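TICKET: design request
STATUS: open
ATTACHED STRUCTURE:
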């Protein structure tokens, strides 16, 4: 900047700018007062005096040592009159013009078209930066007392203490109110300059600095001071806005989305402005420059300089250029609703208001007709469908703007102007509010309407889908249109939770149920409504959003609108049985748990409904709950409740589900590596905690269950059985004897068959069966060959692994109890070692291609030499070696597999090879 340019401002020009600022400021202050009630006007008038003085008769008094005195302050006649009205006789002592307080400023919607009767007052109090902490604490206490007093007068007041040096450096910790925090600085300053009303003390020096000198504000100001055109003690430096750094945009976007949860229309306007600024980058023209330029040019009329009209004008220009009229209309609706001035419902005092004239002119320019205004003014009574549609438009625009700002910031500002904690907390709050996923209960009314309460609600079941219809509609006689339906879902619970969370459902709400022949009875609906209405959702705070989302409550609603015995209930009958297990009811082993609606409430205040249906619904629900197992050690399980009000056996169903939840959740905390086996109807379900989380294995036949139980294991497995699982099955007793490190043999004889079970050292179970050829109940012809085989394998593995002791083998017999289906077990003695030897050694060796080579007393039989005659050749050799030349079955005494020490695999292959030998023996006759 050259010297000539710095001296080109005429002295009279600076005086004129100052005068223009004062006139606009007074016009805004007068406009603000005109919209306040008399008691509220009193608050506005006396606020500077209450902070200027310490007097025991005045509101906010703490003590005489409290920081006070506003620099350069001379009260107006109006302010003095208001002081006497508040506390007659209180005088301003001489010398009270001290200087602990540098200036007072109102900002926001005050004095603008957006100011309504309910608007609050946000006041910045700039204080002497040398005040000690104790004095600041006293001043803060006084401000809090003044806020309470103002509330008693019917006005919401917020006073923010400002340290200007910190503020200019971007450390706006002292401005922790609306639109503040660690997220933005110059955007906040831009809003301050375009909306602030100066109340008392020093004025912002920014008003005397031309836009073209913003980048050299300090030098330009020093020039004015050197030339005695300004008195620096009358002015304060809030900082210049030469440009807005891109790092602020993402923080501002997060804040505005967060504020949009309660005031979406105001936030939308500010978010669109921030997006507009980002689209101008790197040549950004702050909106406050438009205001200052107009004022410097002598335009000091209220309407052209209205902070919100300036904002709307700028963003609608861009939206119109982008060719999206719907977005333009949404922005205009946002301003209209922010103004809170229903033009079709004006009261007598509102008709003569300056705001009314301005807003009517705007609506005329926009082409809005009376019918459209009436529809907008009916917003408090909009239907839930209309509110949901408006919510979708708002959220879509806000999220679109946020995504634009996020992409912009990633490109231009890798380091954000937002703390990690703010980013985490705000991001999580927005995710909780705006994320929409199946089953998530969405708030469709983020500050759009004061209430969605419905006197009547219709629930209609259409082809297994429930429909929620506000009002009373008969789908049979009335013409049901798609726009009548607010929400639909297979889960009635989801609809009722939606109605509860959004306030549609009240104690007085009447519900019509269609069709009349409905699986959901009026009694069951009443009970479910009580459950849903009785849910007490957690109220999240800032700390909750610094943590990951985690469930706090589970509500399981079983068989909602489902009668598990409907085929009997329709005939007026219900099955009665001594077998009262709801997962295997009666001799037919019916599963009475057919659907579960799981309602989850988490620490972010989210509601989620998952629906599980079918015979395995309880197991899939358990698997879903168990995904939270890793956090249970620190946090414990969420609180949970089971509810069931269906037409058949509701109490028994609820009790059984509670029982299963208690057992399973407790089990996986105490024994997280132990699989849990449940039996439902005629299916078996195995819950296993693996590295990938809790997995569910399903076996729909006993043989498939045995296949699951014989899978290899890396370490010892201790299966845990549900209290009703595998009743009348030998597996209950077998698993009760499972011990690590042992080989255990179990056998059961029945109807000429021998059922053999083998538990290995890791708890893996092998089942085999074969004809029981012995008529002697004490004879076990299969045992000695098996023991020889096991001993041979164990001795070889003992040498390979350097194990000092042979593995212990135990033998058990299983038998049915007399007159019972229950089993009993008895330990049996193993034959002596001498009896376990044999004169014929028959062993097999498999290569990596699973080809077998057999050895009979050292003689080799391989496939490439014998081909298809391999097994017959072995049979002939063995029979020749037998002294009796008997034709009894052959048994392998040893088996070697490549790189395999799994006994279960060896036993499986042993049986397969012995079966082939038996077939060859049978063929040989």
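STATUS: resolved
RESOLUTION: sequence designed for all positions
ATTACHED SEQUENCE:
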């Amino acid at each position: 900047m050259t010297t000539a340019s710095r001296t080109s401002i005429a002295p009279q020009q600076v005086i004129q700018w100052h005068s223009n600022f004062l006139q606009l400021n007074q016009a805004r202050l007068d406009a603000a007062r005109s919209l306040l009630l008399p008691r509220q006007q009193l608050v506005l008038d006396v606020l500077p005096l209450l902070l200027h003085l310490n007097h025991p008769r005045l509101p906010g008094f703490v003590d005489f040592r409290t920081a006070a005195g506003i620099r350069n302050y001379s009260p107006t006649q109006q302010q003095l009159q208001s002081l006497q009205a508040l506390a007659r006789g209180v005088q301003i002592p001489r010398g009270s013009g001290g200087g602990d307080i540098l200036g007072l400023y109102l900002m926001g919607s005050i004095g603008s078209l957006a100011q309504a009767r309910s608007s609050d007052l946000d006041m910045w109090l700039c204080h002497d930066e040398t005040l000690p902490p104790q004095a600041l604490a006293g001043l803060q206490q006084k401000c809090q007392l003044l806020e309470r007093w103002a509330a008693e007068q019917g006005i919401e007041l917020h006073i923010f203490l400002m340290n200007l040096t910190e503020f200019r450096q971007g450390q706006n910790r002292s401005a922790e109110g609306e639109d503040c925090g660690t997220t933005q600085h110059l955007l906040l300053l831009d809003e301050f300059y375009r909306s602030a009303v100066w109340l008392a003390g020093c004025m912002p020096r920014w008003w005397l600095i031309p836009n073209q000198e913003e980048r050299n504000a300090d030098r330009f100001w020093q020039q004015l001071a050197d030339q005695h055109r300004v008195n620096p003690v009358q002015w304060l430096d809030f900082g210049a806005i030469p440009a807005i750094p891109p790092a602020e945009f993402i923080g501002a976007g997060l804040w505005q989305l967060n504020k949009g949860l309660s005031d979406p229309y105001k936030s939308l306007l500010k978010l669109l402005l921030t997006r507009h600024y980002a689209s101008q980058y790197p040549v950004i023209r702050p909106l406050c420059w438009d205001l200052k330029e107009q004022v410097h040019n002598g335009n000091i009329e209220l309407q052209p300089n209205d902070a919100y009209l300036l904002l709307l004008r700028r963003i609608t220009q861009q939206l119109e250029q982008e060719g999206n009229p719907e977005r333009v209309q949404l922005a205009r609706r946002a301003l209209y609703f922010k103004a809170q001035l229903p033009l079709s419902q004006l009261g007598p005092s509102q008709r003569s208001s300056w705001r009314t004239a301005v807003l009517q002119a705007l609506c005329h320019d926009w082409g809005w007709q009376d019918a459209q205004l009436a529809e907008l003014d009916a917003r408090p009574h909009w239907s839930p469908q209309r509110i949901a549609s408006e919510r979708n438009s708002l959220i879509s625009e806000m999220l679109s703007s946020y995504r634009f700002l996020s992409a912009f910031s990633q490109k231009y500002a890798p380091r954000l102007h937002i703390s990690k904690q703010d980013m985490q907390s705000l991001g999580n709050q927005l995710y909780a509010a705006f994320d929409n996923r199946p089953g998530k209960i969405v708030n469709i009314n983020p500050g759009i309407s004061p209430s969605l309460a419905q006197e009547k609600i219709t629930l209609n079941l259409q082809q297994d889908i429930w429909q929620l219809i506000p009002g009373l509609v008969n789908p049979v006689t009335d013409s049901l249109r798609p726009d009548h339906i607010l929400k639909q879902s297979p889960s009635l619970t989801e609809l009722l939770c939606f109605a509860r969370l959004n306030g549609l459902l009240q104690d007085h709400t009447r519900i019509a149920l269609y069709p009349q022949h409905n699986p959901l009875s009026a009694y069951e609906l009443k009970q479910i409504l009580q459950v849903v209405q009785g849910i007490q959702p957690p109220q999240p705070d800032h700390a909750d959003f610094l943590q990951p989302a985690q469930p706090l409550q589970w509500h399981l609603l079983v068989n909602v609108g489902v009668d598990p015995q409907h085929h009997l209930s329709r005939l007026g009958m219900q099955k009665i049985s001594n077998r009262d297990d709801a997962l295997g009811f009666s001799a037919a082993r019916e599963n009475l748990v057919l659907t579960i609606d799981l309602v989850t409430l988490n620490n972010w205040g989210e509601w989620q409904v998952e629906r599980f249906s079918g015979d395995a619904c309880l197991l899939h629900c358990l698997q879903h709950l168990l995904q939270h197992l890793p956090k249970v050690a620190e946090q414990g399980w969420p609180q949970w409740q089971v509810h069931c009000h269906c037409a058949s056996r509701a109490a028994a169903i609820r009790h059984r589900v509670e029982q299963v939840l208690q057992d399973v959740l407790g089990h996986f905390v105490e024994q997280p590596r132990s699989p849990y086996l449940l039996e439902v109807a005629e299916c078996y379900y195995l819950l296993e905690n693996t590295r990938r989380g809790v997995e569910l294995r399903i076996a729909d036949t006993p043989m498939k269950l045995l296949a699951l139980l014989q899978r290899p294991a890396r370490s010892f497995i201790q299966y845990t059985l549900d209290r009703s699982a595998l009743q009348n099955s030998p597996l209950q007793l077998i698993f009760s004897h499972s011990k690590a490190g042992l080989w255990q043999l179990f056998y059961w004889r029945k109807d000429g068959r021998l059922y053999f079970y083998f538990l290995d050292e890791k708890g893996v179970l092998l089942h085999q069966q074969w004809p029981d050829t012995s008529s002697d109940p004490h004879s076990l012809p299969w045992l000695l060959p098996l023991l020889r085989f096991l001993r041979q394998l164990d001795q070889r593995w003992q040498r390979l692994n350097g194990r000092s002791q042979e593995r212990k083998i135990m033998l058990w017999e299983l038998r049915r109890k007399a007159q019972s289906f229950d089993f009993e077990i008895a330990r049996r003695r193993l034959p002596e070692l001498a009896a376990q030897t044999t004169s014929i050694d028959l062993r097999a060796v498999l290569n990596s291609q699973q080809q077998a080579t057999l050895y009979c007393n050292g003689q080799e039989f391989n496939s490439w030499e014998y081909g298809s005659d391999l097994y017959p050749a072995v049979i002939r050799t063995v029979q020749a070696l037998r002294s009796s030349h008997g034709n009894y079955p052959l048994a392998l005494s040893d088996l070697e597999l490549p790189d395999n020490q799994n006994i279960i695999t060896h036993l499986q292959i042993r049986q397969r090879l012995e079966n082939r030998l038996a077939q060859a023996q049978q063929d040989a006759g």
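CLOSING REMARK: The first helix runs from residue 3 to 6. The two ends are 117 Å apart (CA to CA).
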